[in-house]
């Protein structure tokens, strides 16, 4: 939980926020705050002193001005679907949710742009753009619930970002309110954009709420594909499926998506969604091509040849559009399906080079056996982004401990194979103790200096990203500031 917070200072915080914001925007009762105690994973909850739900940039400014004057920590939060503990108020203070900022401000089909508030749900952007033959490319599996603001915070990806890129490749403008309550307009949100804006936008996307609160976003829209063709391949081993992924990439093909699911995941999905996956396989691949009809026709045989080259049981195109839609619906419901066969699950999103995918999955299976845990494998395999889901009984303290230990070992394995800690979930609080395994001290110090350029007192999202023991990792505010006097040190 963190922080020394007395009743008097919390009451003063609530009083000032209530005076600055509409009454319905300030939630202070315990039962109201409980809803915001965790994100998509519930293992390490944190309690905010107050939750604020602004509806505009002006209200965000008002809330941050109160937090600034009292020296209070602020935790930005989108829809709460994150999986790294990034939107949890582990040090108390203000949890600032943007879910009520949910207006699509404009869709420009000529410039292929959409201007959005951060609480707009991901899939609603593509729905709004669809009448113009356009879409928003990043499509996290939680896209029916996750919001654009959260996507920006974590630089989210999704199954269909292999060809077109992740969130950072599709953001062209931002409005950022920093911890000092100053509003900064960048890129296509600025009156006079400069080339420097592009670099700042690139730094802000994926900054996990450490730089401020994003209140407006301009995103790039892309045309819908003339032709989309999906292939399903099944294998007698996960390793064979992983080698087939490497073969597709080695053939010089960049599919729209390459997804791999193992037997445990497939069986759960079939029980839950009847997606049409074969139950006799140890692993299946979903490979999707998109482009012009001529391009997809030209790539079909090389892709099928690569899929069949590694002992495939079967490899063929989806029977029809309905079959294709059912398979993708099943894939995107995999986490929910696994939740029906286990009392708890714990997932990470480490990355390995695609050429090391087979080795990584074999090591993960061995980790599961050694810890006595079932681990389902659901992966964005084309770019090596792994999503192992460690299944355990939440009521069993020993299983919980083993699940946490297995997760750390899986992430260490990704680093050992030349990969990284996160592909799209962020570091948050879940992976921060491993950050020094990926980055040396001078690089971490550079990250810290960049963070302090936006937030000198380190009040935005304290306790995230940086390992404990470093000033940034502790989420503290320097002695002598208003935070120290107000009781949030």
Rg of Cα set: 23 Å
What portion of residues belong to β-strands? 15-25%
Named at the architecture level, the CATH assignment of the domain at 104-223 is 2-Layer Sandwich
Q: What overall form do the CA principal axes indicate?
A: globular
Q: Residue ranges: pLDDT <50 for 5 or more in a row?
A: 474-489
- What topology, given as strand order, has the largest sheet? 15-12-14-13-17-18-16
Largest sheet: 7 strands, antiparallel
What's the CATH topology name of the domain at 104-223? Uridine Diphospho-n-acetylenolpyruvylglucosamine Reductase, domain 3
Q: What is the level 1 CATH name of the domain at 104-223?
A: Alpha Beta
Measured distance between first and last alpha carbons: 12 Å
- How much is the average pLDDT? 93
Keywords:
alpha+beta; Alpha-Beta Plaits; Uridine Diphospho-n-acetylenolpyruvylglucosamine Reductase, domain 3; five-stranded antiparallel β-sheet
Describe the protein in words.
With 489 residues, this protein is an alpha+beta fold. 36% of the residues lie in helices and 19% in strands. A hairpin with a 5-residue loop joins strand 8 and strand 9. Helix 7 packs across helix 9, helix 7 (238-250) runs antiparallel to helix 12 (357-371) and helix 12 (357-371) runs antiparallel to helix 13 (397-416). The chain is globular, with a radius of gyration of 23 Å. The chain starts with 6 loop residues before the first helix and ends with a helix.
Describe the secondary-structure layout:
Layout lengths: L6 H14 L5 E2 L2 H5 L15 E3 L4 H14 L3 E4 L16 E4 L6 E5 L4 E4 L5 H8 L4 E2 L12 H7 L16 E7 L5 E5 L7 H10 L8 E8 L1 E2 L3 E9 L2 H13 L6 E6 H11 L9 E9 L1 H16 L3 E6 L3 H12 L1 H6 L4 E4 L9 H15 L2 E7 L7 E5 L4 H20 L18 H4 L2 H14 L16 H4 L7 H5 L3
Parallel strand pairs: 2-4, 3-4
Antiparallel strand pairs: 1-2, 5-6, 6-10, 7-11, 8-9, 8-10, 12-14, 12-15, 13-14, 13-17, 16-18, 17-18
Helix pairs in contact: 1-3, 7-9, 7-12, 8-10, 12-13
